Protein 1
Amino acid sequence: MPRGLLIAQAWSELGDAVAPLSNAAGRPLARTVKLILDPLVLRPVLNPCFAAGAIGIEHVDALRDRIAQAGPVLAATAAWFLVLKKERRRAAITDGNPQDLYFQRCYELAGEHGHPQPDAGKRAAVVLAEIHGQDGPTMAQLREFVTGNPGELARLLDTAWASPPARLAVPSVRPADFLATCATRPDRGLFKALVTDSAGTRGAAELDRPGAALACGLTDRDRVVRPELGATASKKTLPKPFDRSIVERLLGPLTTSAHRELLADVGTLARQEIDRSARPWQLADEPGRVVMVLGGQASAPLTGGQADGAAARLRLRWEREAYVQRVLRMPSEVPDRVRADVHQVRAAYLRRLWVRVHGREVRRDTVVADEVWDLLDGVLRSVILDQRDRLRSDLERQALGASL
């Protein structure tokens, strides 16, 4: 039975008590499934029978029972969510998406305290202080700074983008030499030599060619253009990295509460990002640029060609995926978007790698040789998980549509 349809049916049995976690049609919100049902109720990692897009008939009742048994705590979770939203409005908090920030905390409150009691407002205030009270700049402060200083920041952009890139001599160190053993025995001296030799900056020269940055998944334009300052940013409509405004480029670091205390003040962040946007790979530090070159070479064989060292390991992980094998063997039998995901995996990989490296730069967390393989491998795992989720969502939507 289609997983999405089964979850929707079981959810409907919980009634109005879970309405704050539901959409207009009475089904669980996508974030309810992603943040509450999957990780906290169904737990497909521990219960693989609940993980597939179609649930075997022998497991249908078990999935229904799991959601039904969680009904009381889900109802309490919904009630706590309303309390936290009310307290959020009272405190005039505007940063972050409430569902992303509060759903799992509400589930914890429900498990520990049950339904909200008369002291719920005080408990909610404590939770909000924990989530929003950390030291560090916020998106609201960044927007206020950028919109309040447009003249100065525009002049900085003009100056940064007016200088042509430097031309470097022939390289003396090959990134492939480091990739050959970085997964097992990373050579710190060789990585340092790549940085000293400006291997990352050299690799960025290719991005000046028409269509090069587009092929890397970093822009939707044929040629890279100077960014705007911007004033707003939304994760739902975030452009590709090189097409983002200065404000949009800082959205991720400023909304990841676990790292905000590591960031500089908003004025420094904005000025640094303006300078960074005009640098090779639109990154400020050579170690990060070297990682982009290493990632570009390691990910190239994902769609074919000779692979060894780190590249061979990445391709093995990629080709083990069942949906990848199906696209390669029977392309006409899978949805268009799945085929596109598989055939454009290198662009998705480099885009995700840039976001990771950029975030580390903003947090002043320089990449070292011993971390390179974990970073390269972790990015591919993240891309695979995203593609799996999209595939499952597509199949569930198709099944729901067919059942209506």
Protein 2
Amino acid sequence: MIWSYFIVFALLAVALWAVGAWAAWGNRRTLAFTTTGLGLAVFFAYILIMWITLERPPLRTMGETRLWYSFFLPLSGIIVYSRWRYKWILSFSTLLAAVFVGINLLRPEIHSKTLMPALQSPWFAPHVIVYMMAYALLGAAAVMSVYLLYFKKGEDLDKEMEITDNLTYVGLSFMTLGMLMGAVWAKEAWGHYWSWDPKETWAAITWLAYLVYVHYRQYHPRTVRPSLWILIISFCLLQMCWWGINYLPSAQGMSVHTYNLN
């Protein structure tokens, strides 16, 4: 089974990302871009092979969505690094991607070809992929918030807040696009755009929380600490939306959005 080869692709990709993170600290930008890019290519090659082998996009189980999250974290990291030259961002993205890779190695899941009819919609893959990109960007924004609250020294945070704002704005844009795709998919599959099941309810709560951040920044641009706490709380809500609802009694047996945890 293709899953048995995951460790080879994963360890090679993480090793390349780690070299890229090391190169970034040493101001070796060419090496950082090259090795991080190669790591992304290796990891995405595995995702493509799994996609072809399963004859469906690998997005059905939590393990499969963790694959995409592990891919998008270094991708968002290298984008931030290329734009703002933050040396630590590749270290963060590599470490967090390695954590998700490790979870998949320690908890392998069953990956069958079977998809329920609703998941065979052409909206299924772009909806989840766009959401995973949003989660990666908003994860980076959350880490920036913790960094600015507890580790950044000094009062001039304009540059750091610009980065945090841009990560959040782009992440929220992806989240909004993902919600719209999900609504179209739901209409096609179940006959309605929105049903307020547990997943949709938490998605709306999360979206509104990030919208609060956007408006707070608009009207209180010089008040930084409350903004950062809003981001951290919003990211906690995002975790509930992503995987926490799988453990809610209200979602058991009724939500069409809970991931298969078997």
Protein 3
Amino acid sequence: MSAIFSGSAARRRYWGKRNKHRKLRLDDFHIKQTLGTGACGRVHLAQSKFNKKHYAIKTLNKHEVVRKKQVDHTNNEFTILRDMYHPFLVTLWDAFQDDCHLFMVMDYVPGGELFRELRRQKKFSQEAVRFYAAEVILALEYLHANEIIYRDLKPENILLDERGHVKLTDFGFAKRVPTYTYTVCGTPDYLAPEMIRSQGYTLAVDWWSLGVLIYEMLVGKPPFADTNPVNLYEKILDCRIDWPDGFDPVIMDLLLGLLTPNVAQRYRGTNNDGYRDIKQHPWFASIDFDLVFRRQVMPPYIPSVMNDGDSACFAKYKEIGHPYGAHHHSSPPFTDQHRSKFPAF
């Protein structure tokens, strides 16, 4: 089996399972607790009333999504994840809306964020970084083979399952891009130079972000950092990297191949018209990417998870009342003025 995953057979099995049930609704679940919060909503741990499995339900306030001009990103997230199925991507089962909120039902990934483990350990060994990078590379290759740019790679968006394997999550910035796109979005520390210049960019920005991720996992901080955004962007554009003393020259060579403003020279995955394949770099010589794809390589860290609904690997949040499904009572009577903006739901 090739490490480049087309996913057709697996996707058919997934769609078979997904289409067996009627469209889901909030009443099908017990909302148990908050797993994370964002600008427009929350992610909840929920248990199905039918199969008793636990799921993560992402909720978004429609008014806030519209006010913050995130309508396209939100519709993109559902339509992209709906068609994707891969071992290292979070699985979306369904989406729906009520008068005030949007809901996306996804597999619950109980190991928490890679970010949490990185902060606990301060930095990872080269062996651990190689493992996480290899799984992320296969996820990015799959997305790019489907002409999807991810645009938000960072430790906070990499979840670990109960065995310690990665799952990319949060596809709010993902977009189908056959050629070029121009929107500046993502996390400042991870932005590629061509995105900052606003002159159009391609899927290659994800490989720059991979370089930032690898450096951060090895060193414990991103290669470009500054409290002043202008200074931060200047460092990125100039590619001014603060290399620690004694940095391994092999991994430095790899990172210089990823963190290069010259897009034509940048490492990236296969199926990219003869560009340098990152998987062929000497730093990955010990990696069998077919075994990685089959999840037969032992993860460096196995989360302490007692059962499929264990939330010990997630931070605790102050819980609020969940007015999902309820109208905001007002005079005149409340009307859902935003429903038509979210046809994907």
Protein 4
Amino acid sequence: MNSDLIAAFFIGLLGAGHCMGMCGGIASLMNLGQVSSSRQWLNPLCYNIGRLLSYTLVGAIIGGSISTISTYSGINEPLNWLKLLSAVFMLLLALYIGQWWNALLWFEKAGQGIWKYISPLGQKLLPVKHPLYAIPFGFVWGWIPCGLVYSMLTWSAAAGDFINGGLIMLAFGLGTLPLMLAVGVSAAKLNQVAKSLLFRRVGASVLLAYALFQLYQGVVRLV
């Protein structure tokens, strides 16, 4: 398996605590007023399916667009610069997950202007009357401004084609899935583990080492 996909999944797993902060309140609304035990799982699952679909789609669009531009222009150097940029974002992401530096939050503010036009589409789907309605709701909510998602999109941009661009975002989304499902069914113990500083910093240290390696490789490609 591509090492980038493994790393993307790992980042999703580590960054799920941030996802819980951004989307946890919304995810918990999926079961508002539900008494059926089957729906306790089905509504959050459908919501997260929609969320992962949005990640995969935007990753494929960005990866495919950059690849097409590079192919028709006959210039491959922009891809090398994008790979270097993705390594820088990975470094910022590791520092953010480890709670050493929150520079990544600056990029979330940049998306607030667009989000105010998108969010009303999701609000029209509440309350969720059927599990299938949770899929489009999750799809809309997948566009919420998130520095974690933006950093992963730089990987998609440098992926080389639309398939790999989409797969990177899908792998990232799958990494966030266990915790986001846990929010939907109120699995408090799992939530506590993901939010623990030790868990975050051990994972962030591994990611930091990987980011530095990718940064080194990116510099070598350009020299």
